[in-house]
Structure formats: C-alpha cells, structure tokens
From TrEMBL:
Molecular function terms, GO-annotated: oxidoreductase activity
Gene3D superfamilies (alphabetical): Nitrogenase MoFe cofactor biosynthesis protein NifE, C-terminal, Nitrogenase molybdenum iron protein domain
Coiled-coil annotated spans: none
SUPFAM superfamilies named among the record's database cross-references: Helical backbone' metal receptor
Lineage: Bacteria, Bacillati, Bacillota, Negativicutes, Selenomonadales
Superkingdom to which the source organism belongs: Bacteria
Descriptive protein name: Oxidoreductase/nitrogenase component 1
Limits of the Nitrogenase/oxidoreductase component domain: 58-454
Length: 493
C-alpha cells in the first residue's frame, strides 16, 4: 500500500510507487502470477515509436472542471492537444445535460530565452490575464518538461497568486519526462486536488463519489433508491463540489487505472471508504461489486433484491447473445484496468479473447488490496488469455500481432488505435463511454454493439482493399516482440 503524503508538492511516479511497467509479453495469467509473486520486471524496448505524456493526462482531468481554468506552463507545442480536450469537454457536457461551453485553457508559451532567464514572470502574468478574462473559481497550473528542466518555482508563484487573487491557484507537477507511464498524470492531478482544494469534512454527507472520465450518468439509478446522491468527479464537477468530496459516504471507481490514487487518498486522509472489488463488468464482477457496495453502504438487503431482479431480467437475454457470439474471436487494445474489465466482459459473452495490447500494468493499486485486480479476476473467473502484451501504443507491435491472429473483431478504447484493425479489414469497435458496458445492462449493451459491428463488415473490407500499410511485408513476418527484451519464451497463438 502506498502512503499518501500531502505535504509533498508532487506525487511519486507509478514506476516508483507501484512498480508499474510498460513492456511485457506472455499470457495474462503469467502477468498476474509475476505481479503477485513480486517478480514483475519491465521488459525494455530497444525501439519505441511513440509515447504519451503525464502532463496531458493531468490536463485532461482539470480541463473539464466547469468553473476552473488551466494554465499549461510549457512551450506552445505542449498545447497541441488542447483542441482534443475541448472537443471531449463539449461533447461530454451535452451528454451530461450541461450547456456546451468552450474549455478555458492557456499556455505560457515558454520560449528559448525563457529557458535561460526563467519563466516565472511569464507564468504570473499569464495567470493574472487569464483571471481577468474568465474570473474562474480556481486556477490549475500544469508543468512541462521545459519548466521542470529549468527549475521554475511554480509552487511559489501559485502560492503568491492564490493570496493576490483570493482563489485557489494550484500547481500540478506532471512533467512528461519523469514517468514512462502517462497515467502518472492522473495521480499528479488528483494529488494537487486533494492537497490544495479538498477541505477537511465538516459533516458526513449522503453523497457517493464516482471517479470517472465522462460518459453517461448510470449510477443515479442504482444509488438514489438507496438514499444516496452521486458526485461524478472530476470531469464536469465544480470547484465547490470538489471541496467537499471528503464528506462522502464512499468512493466508487469506474477504472482503477484512473482513480487508484484519489480513491486511496480520500480513504487514508479523510476516511472515505473505497469500494474494493473488481469493477462491475460481466455478471460475476457486477455481483461482487454490488455486494461490496451493499456492505460499505450498509444496504445488503436492498442490493440482494437488485441482484436477484437483474439476474432474472438479464440472464435469459445474455444467453441469446452468447449463442450468437459463441466461437467468435476478439483482440483488444485499451488502458490497463478498463482493458482487463473488457477481457472479462468478452469472455462473459462466450467469445474467445485471442490477445490484448494493454498500455501499462500496475502490479498493485494504491490501496494495497488485491481484490480490485480486474485482470486477476478475469483470469481466475474465465480462464487465461494468450498473446497478452503490455504495450504503450506501439503500433508496429499491434499491427504485427493483429495480422497474425486475425480476430473476428478488434475492440479499441482509444480513437487512434482503431484504424489499424480497419486497414487490415478487421471489424473494429471503438467505445469511449466506459459506463456503456458497466453493470448488468452493460453486458447486453456491449453484446449488441459487437453484433452490429460484425454485421457491418463491408466498410472495413473495402477500406482494406484501398489502404496501404506503412509496415513492410518483412516486418509483418517477424516476431512482433523482436524489439522487446523479455525473460519469457513468448509464442503467438
Ligand atoms: S510536457 Fe514534455 S512530453 Fe509532455 S508534451 Fe510537453 S514536451 Fe512533450
């Protein structure tokens, strides 16, 4: 279990805190075994095509707080993905029945001479100008490789400006070069929120925190009848809402990769219990998750009634979907915990998971408990998965494996990955809304979407006929892990 230290201005990286890795090839069971035995080692790549950045992941969480603004203390190139955050924010607001306002994001535009003379004055000026324009209720500063390398005193500027403007001005240390695991940026954002924004509880409330990205509001239906209100955090929340999340009755995580740090921080620092269970994907996972909710919220009786009712409603329909999907094969690429949950979901539907390219692996979460390990749950409940690759979006590995296993469908969680399946003529399903497949209804939703994709192959078949692939025939014939140094003897099945 990691110890949450709110006195430190920055959070430790996932590599240092949890022993997380970005390189592995083997089976899912072998990965779980290594993680449990404490023998998990990073398999280094001698060639890397691309990487994500912690700063972007931190920014993504702040960029959707309704009444806050974000100042990226960085060269303007680091702001290249502002438009994506704004797009997701605007679409997400509509899904949450909010008026779609534009995101308020600013860059200090660190230039060459600033890297010599320092850029703290530029940062202070940017914050003042942004405050005059927007009058937000909080300002978050995200740092960058450049601000970290020149050693700007970002914390000092934030503290001075907080006093001057009378609102929280909060530094978030998320320099891209510090961690190979870009989800360290989520932890950095949450560390700064818990450290500088969340207030100690004055009373206990009937709220339940749901740590999520965006997507549909599915938790009200379950929790309102139990007498609880839902606070969806952090995207689409307000500064005032975040100040009081320490008063909640419990914290739910839609994905442990996203919420491991803030869930543990709220429990350790303020005693808000975290729901510790595999996430509710697939029937077995949902049953366990529901029972844990019932235990923590002292609503066991009501929860057992919901489980019985939902089984009666969902299981016959699930059987119909299983009959249609039996024997179909799938390959998956996604972030860690959500990818693990989808493996369980696909197996629940009777499909054969031929492999997965999952962006990183946390052998343990911040709360130290092993029950929440969604991959262990999938392997123990449904069986092992071959061709399991921890792969931080190295497209060359993905394309090579896909070309060899040729699944009936490829499932992707991130937009940029879908084209690889389509270019090979493999039907590819992208679902960005994690809530769509959550819980009992989620199993049926997902089955329906898979069947729709399998029924509409013409588009990808034609696309493949007219596409070119940047990878040569030579590469596609090689071992996909030629550039990955692994201790395991890996075979592609
Ligand atoms: S913070 Fe560093 S890694 Fe991230 S976008 Fe900027 S330069 Fe690139």
């Amino acid at each position: 279990m990691s110890v949450i230290n709110l006195k430190a201005s920055e959070v430790q990286t996932r590599e240092a805190r949890l022993g997380s890795i970005t390189g592995f090839a083997g089976t899912a069971g072998e990965l779980v075994g290594c993680a449990r035995a404490g023998t998990l080692k990073e398999s280094e790549r001698s060639f890397s095509q691309c990487m994500g950045c912690s700063s972007g992941n931190a920014f993504c969480q702040f960029s959707m707080i309704q009444d806050a603004i974000v100042v990226n203390h960085a060269p303007v190139g680091c702001a290249g993905d502002f438009f994506t955050f704004n797009f997701v924010y605007r679409v997400g607001q509509m899904e949450r029945d909010l008026s779609p306002v534009i995101g308020r994001y600013f860059s200090t535009n660190i230039e060459e001479q600033d890297t010599i003379f320092g850029a703290t004055q530029k940062l202070a000026d940017t914050i003042r100008k942004a405050y005059e324009r927007v009058r937000p209720n909080a300002i978050f500063i995200t740092t960058s490789c450049a601000s970290g390398i020149i050693g700007d005193d970002v914390e000092g500027v934030a503290n001075d400006l907080s006093e001057e403007l009378g609102i929280p001005v909060i530094a978030c240390f998320c320099e891209g070069f510090k961690s190979k695991i870009w989800t360290t940026g989520f932890d950095a954002a949450y560390h700064s929120i818990v450290r500088k924004l969340v207030k100690p509880p004055e009373k206990k409330s009937n709220k339940v925190n749901v740590i999520n990205f965006w997507g549909s509001k599915i938790f009200d239906e379950l929790l309102n009848p139990l007498g609880y209100e839902v606070d969806y955090i952090v995207p689409f929340s307000t500064v005032a809402q975040l100040e009081h999340i320490s008063e909640a009755a419990a914290t739910i995580q839609i994905c442990s990769t996203l919420g491991t740090y803030i869930g543990a921080a709220l429990e350790q620092v303020y005693g808000v219990p975290e729901i510790k269970s595999p996430p509710a994907y697939g029937i077995a996972g949902t049953d366990r998750w529901m029972r844990e909710i019932g235990r923590v919220l002292d609503s066991q009786g009501e929860i057992e009634e919901v489980i019985a009712k939902e089984h009666e409603r969902v299981l016959p329909k699930l059987e119909e979907y299983r009959n249609k999907l039996q024997g179909k094969t799938a390959y998956l690429t996604a972030g860690a915990a959500h990818g693990h949950a989808l493996i369980a979901l696909l197996q629940e539907l009777g499909m054969t998971v031929q492999g997965a390219a999952i962006f990183h692996h946390d052998p343990i979460y911040d709360n130290g408990d092993v029950v929440s390990d969604a991959l262990a749950h999938a392997v123990n409940t449904y069986g092992d998965v071959p061709n399991y690759n921890v792969c931080n979006k190295q497209a060359y590995e993905l394309v090579n494996i896909l070309n060899k296993v040729r699944p009936d469908i490829m499932i992707a969680r991130h937009g940029g990955m879908t084209m690889w399946g389509a270019k090979l003529g493999i039907p590819t399903l992208l679902i960005g809304d994690e809530q769509l497949s959550f819980g009992y209804q989620g199993v049926l939703n997902y089955a329906e979407r898979i069947l729709e994709s399998l029924d509409n192959k013409e588009f990808v078949i034609n696309l493949a006929k007219h596409s070119t692939m940047p990878y040569t025939k030579w590469w596609l014939e090689q071992d996909p892990f030629s550039f990955l140094r692994s201790d395991l003897d890996v075979k592609i099945y």
